[in-house]
Structure formats: C-alpha cells, structure tokens
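Hi there, hope your week has been kind to you so far. Please have a think about how the structure follows from the sequence. I've dropped the whole record in just underneath, so have a look:

_____
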Amino acid sequence: MPPVRILIVEDERQTVDALRDLFEQNGYETEVALNKQVALAILQERKMDLAIISTKVQEISGLEILYEIKKIIPNIPIIVVSDQKSKRIESSFMKAGANVFLAKPLESLFVLQTIENLLIARFAIATPKKTKSYSKSKK
C-alpha cells in the first residue's frame, strides 16, 4: 500500500516544521503549502489523503482555502488548526466541512490519533504505523 500523503497548509514555519517532522517520523509523506495557490496546485498535481489547514494563511481566510480544497477533492478529511480557541470560529469551519478543529499548541499523540481515526473512517485501512497483534492465550 502506498504511504498516506498529508497536505499541510500553514504559513507559520514553526508549526510546519513540527508537523512535517512528526508525520514523517510516523511513516506519512507530507507536502507543504505556505499559501492558497501552492496548496491548490499540489492538490491538482498529486493525490493527497488528508489536509491540515490553518484558520489564516498569509491573510487569506482558512475558510476560503477549505472551500477550494473541497471543490478539488470533496471527500478529503480536513483538520483545521487555530491560534485561538473560539466556538464561533470552530463552528464556522465545522459547518464548512472540516472534520476536526484543533487549537494550538498541538499535542503530537492526539494529532496522530486524530489522523489515524480520520483515515480509518475514510478508507477503512490501517495507517503506516505497525499494528499491534494480540494473541489469545489458551486456558
């Protein structure tokens, strides 16, 4: 099975680096877009399995980017990350089609588990991480 590909649409370099390192250490491939135009070009050229977008990228609303992504790949899972925890902003993104809304700072294990859950729901497949095998003991 080919590796899962994640698009990161974020212009905050520290967040980009942290997410890219986290994903690549866990077997995911990543593409990074620092603006809307690059994000849309990546989506048209490459198959992406999941997108993570910021609520604001270079003064453009993350909602605008979310709508554009959904036009290209309607069923792509989208995680939105925000510098602020606001029910109003979260509600706007969820109504627009985001699957998950996360406030920074991001907790690595929670982000990985969220991605795994979204991918399992979308593809009914296991993620690149090794699955645990359990053996039944005979009594």
Summary: The longest helix spans residues 108-123. The helical segments are 13-25, 36-45, 62-72, 87-96, 108-123.
